[in-house]
Design brief:
By secondary structure, the chain is an alpha+beta fold. It has 2 domains: 146 residues, DD-peptidase/beta-lactamase superfamily (Beta-lactamase, 3-Layer(aba) Sandwich), CATH 3.40.710.10; 116 residues, Beta-lactamase. It contains 10 helices and 9 strands.
């Protein structure tokens, strides 16, 4: 795909609708690196009649009065941090490219780059998610833009009333945090592997959150955000210096929070 295609919602969802499964359903799983945003977002659009960005604003961002968007509004670009590729991420991308077997499809690479529309790092100096046109597009699997305070507020509201808003009930959380997939995925990816509920990443050896009951999601380059029901905490760590998957910056902050809470 191209950049022009991935910012065109009908084009992307048509491509996904036409895609044949890459393995027999119910025989394995893989991480839908970016495409899950369009898959879920199109369901939202068909049910509500609203784009996923508009529905997110109506349901979450506006009631909580937070600076968070799926599709950056006009006039907001100057507020957005410029993303940079850190040395460990650059080294990882180089190693992955060198390890590929010519003529063999690397589906994980295709998933991350959307077939070449994005760089493997997801950014260049002025392309990918540094491109104002991409930031303005509704790419819900990876294109959300928010402050750390906004994300922490949103996650807090999933487990406790926050500024008068509670986003999820206990029954919904109970269902959504049941493990749906774990262990080795379809494609050979070295462990440890994350655990997944219904859209939520769960606490695992691959990503320790605050406690074993926490649920949230990592983001590319070192971002991490989650909620913890027991301590009623919402947390978000964001950085514009993108590093590789073993980056420990968020982990150190989470460890410090756990210690400060005596958990």
């Amino acid at each position: 795909m191209t950049t022009a295609q991935i910012i065109d919602w009908p084009v992307v969802v048509a491509q996904l609708a036409a895609q044949e499964p890459l393995w027999e359903p119910d025989t394995g799983y893989a991480y839908h690196a970016i495409t899950h945003g369009w898959l879920a977002g199109e369901v939202i659009r068909r049910v509500t009649g609203l784009s996923v960005g508009a529905y997110f604003a109506q349901l979450i961002a506006e009631p909580l009065h937070v600076d968070a968007w799926i599709g950056l509004p006009n006039g907001m670009h100057d507020r957005v941090a410029h993303m940079q590729v850190g040395s460990t991420l650059a080294q990882l991308v180089e190693m992955q490219a060198a390890a590929r077997t010519p003529g063999v499809t690397d589906w994980s690479e295709i998933a991350m780059t959307l077939g070449g529309a994005l760089a493997p790092e997801l950014i260049t100096a002025d392309e990918g998610f540094n491109d104002p046109a991409v930031q303005a597009a509704e790419i819900p699997g990876a294109g959300g833009i928010a402050t750390a305070r906004a994300l922490a507020t949103i996650w807090s509201a999933t487990v406790v009333p926050t500024d008068g808003v509670r986003l999820l009930g206990s029954e919904v959380l109970g269902s959504a945090t049941v493990v749906q997939s774990e262990g080795p995925p379809v494609w050979d990816v070295p462990g440890p592997w994350p655990r997944w509920g219904m859209g939520f990443q769960l606490d695992s050896e691959a990503r320790r959150f605050l406690t074993s009951d926490s649920f949230g999601h990592d983001g590319a380059g070192g971002q991490s955000a989650f909620a913890d029901p027991g301590s009623q905490v919402g947390f978000a760590y964001l950085t514009n210096q993108m590093e590789a998957i073993d980056d420990q910056r968020a982990t150190r902050v989470i460890d410090a929070l756990r210690e400060s809470l005596g958990l």
